[in-house]
Write a structure and sequence with these properties.
It is an enzyme of class 2 (transferase). This protein is mainly alpha-helical. It has helices spanning 2-43, 59-69, 79-84, 104-116, 120-146, 149-160, 163-168, 175-206, 210-213, 220-233, 239-260, 266-273, 275-292, 295-299, 321-339, 390-410, 413-426, 446-461, 468-496, 503-509, and strands at 360-367, 380-386, 501-502. A three-stranded antiparallel sheet has the order 1-2-3.
């Protein structure tokens, strides 16, 4: 009898071992399927329109110059026409140009032009790939955050059909690159949190003061997050608030983890054991990554202000001249970015961004009857509108309120993490009420909105142990919201892809006058 019991136990163990890899594959197949769907949407007809879309008039040419000279150069006024012409002419030059953003995002955009040439597909492909990978990351982050593959896949699906993220994944602008890096850092910190909690649980099992004294050693995922956030700063300085907020967030996680593991003095232990390692692996690693992004400018002689400090004396003359020149260059970039108040047709106030009050028209062409397949008597329109899928963004407003409730009243750390990310990428813009700003900057916010909506939908499904009736009604409500988001995206799809549509159809999609 004992032998039979032992054999049955061993059989169950073998079945468990075989089932574990299958379960792991399931955790990947769902997110991968969502990512493939997102990738098909983003890569389909990526080279259309054959034009410079909005600020593509700057970044692809800067990217081309970086890959060929190491620094951004000036271009003639008719450069766009020459580049898009047939035969193509690329009027390269050596004269340096002042630029308003660090170079890393343009290096990444230039990777596509290096392989596919200075054409619309070439300067959009790198951003499209990162936008697709961002959908995969959201699905995986959602699975880790909520311990549910279903909720993670829902979050990824929501981002796959968000109009703003879709548009910003199909244009050669910097914001999609920045969004990828910030999201990657957030995901890396979640992995680090899980791993350190495992160590703390082991310490708690030892008893005594182990949770106070335990040292985590090298934390590669947190170091990776620091590098990614430094890279985000090297794309746009908007990554700096995320670096600061995420550094504070991980320290709070360390303190809470030590307290949960039975530490007698969790705050003291965190300050003694975790503060300096966090400073090294986050801000310091970020700073080093940022400086390295300027290697092209430092290694060449022709960049803007490259020799500003040569022959200048002063209190900091002991600092190498190239670094002093770089510091001066940064002071000019800071002045430009903080004092830009030139009026623009599509500028908007941050207060309106969550409700998509003023989306940005990135491309517009009025097509006459008989041209480009237009058969409407009143003519047609072809537009790229950087509009977040309205149903999704409006649902996200309720989801953020729910996350605030969960964090404040239930002390839900997951809601707190999402709110911290939202605060890092959204709230700093309220400081610049008079600056010329645009709603498409919030593409960095989209992943966290989708995660918040997925959390709310998961709550609608009900907790484990709910009655079947409760589950059915919750699933019906959550499914209705997801279907509404997908339908809304499909309805606005022509405005995301510059499809030629009759003017009457275009007017039907202008729900508010502020969208025109």
């Amino acid at each position: 009898m004992a032998l039979a019991v032992t054999e049955r136990r061993q059989q169950r163990e073998r079945e468990t071992v075989r089932a574990a890899p299958a379960k792991d594959r399931y955790r990947w197949w769902g997110p991968l399927a969502v990512a493939v769907f997102a990738g098909v949407l983003r890569l389909w007809n990526l080279g259309y329109p054959h034009a410079f879309v909005f600020d593509e008039t700057y970044y692809p040419k800067d990217a081309w110059a970086l890959w060929h000279t190491g620094y951004e150069t000036a271009w003639p006024d008719n450069a766009n026409q020459l580049i898009l012409g047939d035969p193509q002419v690329i009027p390269t030059g050596k004269a340096a140009a002042f630029i308003a953003h660090p170079p890393l995002g343009k290096w990444i955009i230039g990777l596509g032009t290096h392989f596919w040439g200075l054409h619309p597909f070439g300067w959009r492909i790198a951003v499209a790939v990162l936008g697709t990978l961002s959908v995969l990351m959201v699905a995986r982050i959602g699975r880790r955050l909520f311990r549910s593959t279903l909720i993670g896949c829902v979050a990824g699906l929501l981002m796959a059909v968000d109009g703003l993220q879709f548009v910003m994944s199909r244009v050669g602008l910097l914001d999609g690159v920045s969004a990828f890096l910030v999201l990657g850092a957030f995901g890396a910190l979640l992995v680090d949190r899980d791993r350190t909690r495992d160590l703390l649980r082991a310490a708690r099992a030892e008893g005594g003061r182990a949770a106070d004294e335990v040292r985590f050693g090298l934390r590669p995922w947190r170091l990776a997050a620091g590098v990614l956030l430094g890279a985000a700063c090297a794309v746009k300085w908007t990554g700096a608030p995320a670096l600061a907020v995420f550094t504070v967030l991980v320290l709070l996680w360390d303190q809470a983890g030590r307290r949960a593991a039975g530490a007698r003095h969790p705050w003291r232990s965190m300050l003694r054991r975790d503060l300096w390692p966090a400073a090294v692996s986050m801000p310091l690693a970020g700073l080093l990554t940022y400086v390295l992004s300027w290697t092209g400018w430092l290694a060449t002689d022709g960049g803007y202000d490259r020799h500003w400090a040569d022959g200048r004396s002063g209190a900091f003359s002991w600092v190498p001249a190239p670094l002093r020149s770089l510091w001066h260059y940064h002071s000019e970039i800071w002045h430009f970015n903080t004092t830009l108040t030139s009026p623009h047709t599509y500028q908007s106030n941050p207060w309106s961004w969550l409700v998509q009050g003023r989306p940005v028209s990135m491309y517009w062409e009025q097509v006459q009857n008989g041209q480009k397949g237009c058969t409407a008597p009143e003519g047609c329109a072809s537009q790229i509108l950087a509009l977040g899928t309205p149903v999704l963004w409006w649902a996200a407003c309720f989801a953020l309120a729910y996350a605030l409730y969960r964090w404040f009243f239930r002390r839900d750390w997951r809601s707190g993490a999402l709110l911290a990310a939202v605060a890092a990428v959204y709230l700093p813009w309220f400081r610049y009420q008079e600056r010329t700003v645009f709603s498409f900057y919030m593409v960095v916010l989209v992943p966290f909105l989708c995660l918040a909506v997925a959390q709310m939908l998961g709550a609608m499904l009900g907790p484990e142990g709910s009655t079947p009736s409760r589950r059915r009604w919750g699933a019906a409500g959550a499914g209705l919201i997801v279907v509404a988001v997908i339908g809304c995206f499909a309805f606005f799809y022509p405005l995301y892809t510059a499809e030629v549509i009759p003017m009457s159809d275009w007017h039907t999609r202008m729900w508010f006058t502020s969208w025109i």
